[in-house]
User: Fold Glutamine--fructose-6-phosphate aminotransferase [isomerizing] from Flaviflagellibacter deserti.
Amino acid sequence: MCGIVGILGSKPVAPQIVDALKRLEYRGYDSAGVATLERGELERRRAPGKLKFLEEKLELEPLSGFAGIGHTRWATHGAPNERNAHPHATERVAVVHNGIIENFRELKEELLDFGVNFQSDTDTEVVAQMVNRELDAGKTPELAVAAVLARLRGAFALVFLFKGEDDLMIGARRGSPLAVGYGDGEMFFGSDAIALAPFTDQISYLNDGDCAIVTRRGVKVRDCDGSGVAVSRPVQRSLANAAMIDKGNYRHFMAKEIAEQPEVVGHTLAHHLDMANMRARVPDGIDFATLDRLAISACGTAFYAGLVARYWFEKFARMPVDIDIASEFRYREPPLKEGGLAIMISQSGETADTLATLRHCREQGMQIASVCNVPTSTIARDSDAVLPTLAGPEIGVASTKAFTCQLATLAALAVAAGRARKVLTAEDEFRLVNALIEVPRLMTETLKLEPQIERLAKTFAHSRDALYLGRGTSYPIALEGALKLKEISYIHAEGYAAGELKHGPIALIDEDVPVVVVAPFDQLFEKTVSNMQEVQARGGKVVLITDAEGAIVAGETFETLIVPTSYAFVSPLIYAIPMQLLAYHTAVFMGTDVDQPRNLAKSVTVE
Assistant:
């Protein structure tokens, strides 16, 4: 994940910015840069690779300005080289950016028609060039930024520095986090509180749609997604330090990690997709064209990510998939083909059963790929190919952002496999990659359901049992929803394929059992709604999760949660969020220990 730092200081800020960026290294990055105001003019120093290379450049070419911005970048649009490193700048404005600008192509075409010359391959430079045009048209920095924000689509955080404005910095967020730090005659921006810990413990967290105009005297926050009116964001004391991840203004880590999903899924997709060419990247050392089967193994939530992936690989790559819970894999003694590929999925990379399965597959002569959130973990080190999930540290025991990052990684891999096996055409790949690029924005929209879900959770909190139903890729999402509710609220919940309802579970239905139906409006919708109606006929309380068209067709329910319409391929990533929010708010209402539920550990390192 990218890191952002901005400082309006009382001494040269470049060394402070580099120090702050070091505290964000846990996010991962492949280039870094700093821009400062030198006697009113914008100056930049950028370098690919680790921060030590930027430090070496700053030693040779120091910056002395008292106002500056800095960034660590994961490459999204364009290779990880100096020309694509942030900050991006014109003569009049410099900007650092986390996230993805979805409509950057059409905006870039517009700028090209005006004769703008681009110096990089990034979506971020489009933002800088657009603001520059607004400034050239005579707008103030505040109005120029507001005009550009109104035209951007995607999930992002942005911080701007302007030529000749030594006491001004503007930040904005939509989907990606951004915090403001308060000092004594100094002010700061940071993508999280850890970056700002050496400078201040007084932090305010911007909400989605906020635009913050910062001077050394303080900050004015406006709603840039709506009326532009002034809003107030509380200042709170942060306890962040180098060894601690801060909850920010969230009550629990789980809530923070749910909210981080647009950003971290965006970064994960950026790693596994070539967005400039609309291609999915094939990991080095894996030749899908020579494979005839695929084995997937995992535990818990990661296993459900694998179940979704089975649908994707079999549909888009026409590749048969064997999938097992890792604790059963070895004991089933499945026939394994030497030279075949096994994929291990683990958030921690230390899951004992998954590691044992990996070693069993290795003994059978198989190639190993791991989908893992910790690149230095044992599973990652023992793999032939590592497919990183860039979720960042996940503190809550119940997995949220790690799960959706696993889905994002596996989705990209399935597309890459389909193209390599000539099942998908270039046009098919373009369409599927484009659907994935839209996911962070759709996630941001889905998070707006939280107030409705919080009210619904009060009903769930009075239930002893709950059922979750889904078909196709929605079936594993139903399983995951039931698991989340069990894990943190301790309510008994079960997930079923909707078609199995009549084969036993329907006996449990009565007016006290809520039934969550996961049903995007796709080719399976009609059959799923038929199962839903069987529940309603027996007095069951149906909570339907669908899109706008599905809600119209389905008719009346106990509660309908309407998520943004999405391409069916990516619906599991979108529909996972209501599952998480429902479990979270039910647990909060019941007063359980959300982040550390009883009897559970974050990483299961014993069999």
Observations:
- The mean pLDDT is 91.
- The chain has three domains: 3-249, 266-437, 441-600.
- The first strand starts at residue 3 and ends at 8.
